[in-house]
From TrEMBL:
It comes from Acidisoma silvae. Residues 94-327 form the Tryptophan synthase beta chain-like PALP domain. It is an enzyme of class 4 (lyase). Its EC number is 4.2.3.1. Coiled coil: none annotated. PROSITE patterns: DEHYDRATASE_SER_THR. Belongs to the threonine synthase family. The lineage of its organism: Bacteria, Pseudomonadati, Pseudomonadota, Alphaproteobacteria, Acetobacterales. This is Threonine synthase. Residues 2-80 form the Threonine synthase N-terminal domain. It catalyses: O-phospho-L-homoserine + H2O = L-threonine + phosphate. One of its GO terms (molecular function) is pyridoxal phosphate binding. InterPro entries: Ser/Thr_deHydtase_PyrdxlP-BS, Thr_synth_N, Thr_synth_N_sf, Thr_synthase-like, Threonine_Synthase, TrpB-like_PALP, TrpB-like_PALP_sf.
Length: 468
């Protein structure tokens, strides 16, 4: 399988190249040249497979020549072996037509583990084949950093440096990063905000000498491999509900549009999905787009669902590319307009195509809290704020014909205990295997909000590690 940039000006690559590159040189996102479609009989043949086996089979057409099916099967098995539930992605029925698929049984209790645990395996495999090493850098306000660290810890060809804003992540989130005892992990607590950390990471990549010396790479959600690794659980859920002989609908709490894009891809591959329902918090650019073709960026406002506090959903560019019939010139122009003016004039025909498939619902913090309470009162299910938004959107959905709605639960309630307790009076506790979190020794290095200081810290860390 070859991959092209949504903006048409980058060298095409294979899966391995896309995995290591992340973003394309022209600022676009990589997309597969075609969608591997399956017939109804081929979908049926995937029923009842263990999750790792299903994941390998669904992903393999995207991975193509880079990794054989046998090797991919082994990587998937290792990626999901550490999950704390034998089904990996269990389904829970809430109501006659409503199910939840739990994506939070990985090591950091959020759905990012679904993709990043496999990405760690894929990186190690491809780097070994090529006899290369990399330094992964990233900025985090919470969930992504810990999921990336857990995925890369103790991998000999990877060093990982994660910047977080000192004192501005929750204690659970910080400890999930800083209590990891692995010599290839470097936590930097920056004296600044999350935006400062993100600007710093951009600065590290913009310094071409530093970038080359350190062999910098990123694992943020624009990496195609993350999307590919999220397609299998939609297949698993749909098959469990009777697909391909029955239509289903998915409800997805959405921030960067990565998770729901994977659902879109599963449908594009031939899975019978009647509707994609997206839930958002007060940062509602996507639901405004669906309601009135109003794609206008506003400032990010903090909410009860911080992992969805996003103003510009980077993976939307992939859907846009498809909506304009894969025209890279139109896509590049629209993205450029958006960057310049904060408003994207999506052509009417493209918007209509989007609204035929997608529905959206935005919830304020008060509505999110009410949703957590109502879900618990009526079904007994304890949902975190992100998952509650997805479930509420699923409950409000208008379907063209009766179909089971499957809402994606993206975080364990114990990750957001204050919001859950405020809504229900119940304080969810961490699963036993994470109890050590609150007592383990923390490892972090403080840094001023200054690019040169952070660069020299990372240089020293990478050098020190080489001598171990
Ligand atoms: C990242 C995240 C989301 C948003 O997912 P996207 O792929 O960015 O749309 C939702 N919920 C939780 C808990 C997350 O960590």
């Amino acid at each position: 399988m070859r991959y092209f940039s949504t903006r048409g000006q980058a060298e095409p690559r294979d899966f391995g190249g896309v995995l290591l590159a992340g973003l394309a040189e022209d600022g676009g996102l990589f997309m597969p040249e075609s969608w591997p479609e399956r017939s109804a009989a081929e979908w049926r043949a995937l029923r009842d497979l263990p999750y790792a086996e299903l994941a390998a089979q669904v992903m393999h057409p995207f991975v193509g020549e880079t990794i054989s099916l046998d090797v991919l099967r082994g990587l998937c098995e290792r990626a999901y072996a550490g999950f704390n539930h034998p089904a990996r992605v269990p389904m829970v029925q809430l109501d006659s037509g409503l199910w939840v698929q739990e994506l939070f049984h990985g090591p950091t209790l959020a759905f990012k583990d679904m993709a990043l645990q496999l990405l760690g395996q894929l990186f190690e495999h491809v780097l070994t084949e090529r006899n290369e090493t990399v330094t992964i850098v990233g900025a985090t306000s919470g969930d992504t950093g810990s999921a990336a660290i857990e995925a890369c810890r103790d991998r000999s060809r990877i060093k990982i440096a994660i910047l977080h804003p000192e004192g501005r992540t929750s204690e659970v989130q910080r400890r999930q990063m800083t209590t990891v005892d692995a010599s290839n992990v470097f936590n930097i607590a920056v004296d600044g905000t999350f935006d400062d950390c993100q600007d710093m990471v951009k600065g590290l990549f913009a310094d071409t000498a530093f970038r080359g010396d350190m062999k910098l790479t990123a694992v943020n959600s624009i990496n195609w491999a993350r999307i590919a690794a999220q397609i299998p659980y939609y297949v698993a859920a749909a098959l469990a509900m009777g697909a391909p002989d029955r239509e289903v609908a998915f409800a997805v709490p959405t921030g960067n549009f990565g998770n729901v894009l994977a659902a879109w891809a599963a449908r594009r591959m031939g899975l019978p999905v009647s509707k994609l329902i997206i839930g958002s918090n007060r940062n509602d650019i996507l639901t405004r787009f669906l309601a009135a073709n109003d794609m206008t960026a506003k400032g990010v406002a903090p909410s009860l669902s911080p992992s969805m506090d996003i103003q510009v959903s980077s993976n939307f560019e992939r859907l846009l590319f498809e909506l304009v019939d894969r025209d890279p010139t139109v896509t590049a122009q629209l993205m450029q307009d958006f960057r310049k003016t904060g408003h994207m004039p999506v052509p009417d025909a493209a918007w209509k195509k989007a609204t035929a498939l997608f529905q959206g619902l935005a919830l304020s913090d008060a509505e999110t809290s009410a949703a957590i309470r109502q879900i618990h009162d009526t079904t007994g299910y304890l949902a975190d704020p992100h998952s509650a938004i997805g479930i509420a959107a699923g409950q409000a959905a208008k379907l063209p014909a009766p179909a089971p709605v499957i809402a994606m639960a993206t975080a364990h309630p114990a990750k957001f205990p204050d919001a859950v307790e405020a809504a229900t009076g119940i304080r969810p506790s961490l699963p036993p295997h994470l109890a050590h979190l609150m007592t383990g020794e923390e490892r972090l290095t403080r840094a001023p909000n200054d690019l040169a200081s952070v660069e020299s810290l990372i240089r020293a860390f990478v050098g020190r590690n080489d001598q171990l």
